[in-house]
Write a structure and sequence with these properties.
Elements (H helix, E strand, L loop, with lengths): L21 H23 L5 H22 L12 H16 L3 H9 L11 E2 L2 H14 L7 E5 L3 E9 L19 E8 L1 E5 L2 E2 L1 H5 L5 H23 L14 E3 L8 E5 L13 H9 L2 H4 L3 E4 L1 H8 L10 E2 L9 E2 L2 E5 L10 E7 L1 H4 E14 L7 E13 L5 E6 L3
Parallel strand pairs: 2-14, 7-8, 8-16, 9-12
Antiparallel strand pairs: 1-14, 3-4, 5-15, 6-15, 9-13, 10-11, 11-12, 13-16, 14-15
Amino acid sequence: MDIDSNQLETKAGLPAEAAVTYGEMMQAFEAFKAENDDRVAAIERRRPDVLNEEKVARIERRLDEMTLKAARPAIGRDNAVQSHDAREHKSAFDTYVRSGESAGLRALETKALSAGSAPDGGYLVPSEVEHEIGKRLAAISPIRSIAGVRAISANVYKKPFMTVGPATGWVGETAERTATTSPTLDELSFPAMELYAMPAASATLLEDSAVNIDEWIAQEVEQVFAAQEGTAFVAGDGDNKPRGFLDYDTVAEASWVWGKLGFIATGVDGGFPTAGPVDPLIDLVYALKAGYRQNAAFVMNRKTQSAIRKLKDEDGQYLWHPPAQAGGRASLLTFPVVEAEDMPEIDDDSFSVAFGDFNRGYLIVDRMGVRVLRDPYSAKPYVLFYTTKRVGGGVQNFDAIKLLKFAGP
């Protein structure tokens, strides 16, 4: 049974990607299971069928497309009533972007007594544009969609934590109490680094009053920001960028200590064991404490997901399941799967699967304020818009994220 994208009905007035339904998703998944079962049976009979292999690969690609389309959110604009100051800022910013006239923005910043807002550093975008960019990033940036996010006004966010807590215990009503020891505190530091994009616009676009400049800027920078953030949140080294969770020291879960991420080994270099291939994934799930499992998710890239999609449990049931509803995520062992292309592919000693409560385990800090500097000179006849925001990130709870290492014992 093959699935053709032409079988999907396009609903009136909606783009094709909006027509993916749960029934169509399940139809594709059932087709995949049937073809994959035939493929496995042929391999066991030592008579592999090339045509069958191609069908499985084709349906897998279709499943990937449908999963992505089903999870894509509809992003609209907020119609909240704006304050007078917000409308004034929006109007002045629109004038600056279209014509380069900055007197209105300078007057607003002087009125607000804002510091460090010289024209050489650009001007703050209206709050609704900043909100729109943030909303779009949360929708398309895989790690941002599950991590903890905090807005800051300074360049560094410092979070204290206790390495040794005060002594506690049970005691009788009239029994003698021993003196409690003072807690020992340490702190984690999350500096916000500058992320930039430089979209270009033609004079015709800027002169067109029908073009919504706020929407245009948000659309132009979202993909660039999301791609750079995604890489940094996974594997960034912390040098002028956020520190990714794979950049931290790792240790076998049996020897876990604070400051390192614990891992479970598959027992086989670069793959899953032939006998009990599901066992490492189950061990990974239960390496996480119960309090973190409630909000946990798997993180992997699409090739790793493709390999895991073929795994079955002892009863012959597939571990991977498609999204149960529009806007949902695929699931593995009942936990959602987040597809992050910056995760490494399966290889010897690779950490290709992460599992944890990223909301409590990984923190993203956004310094408030997105700036735009108009540059009409560097790329004539186009106008460049140097757009910057400050972002930081790092692990805030080393017990909330676990890794799967594709390595021998």
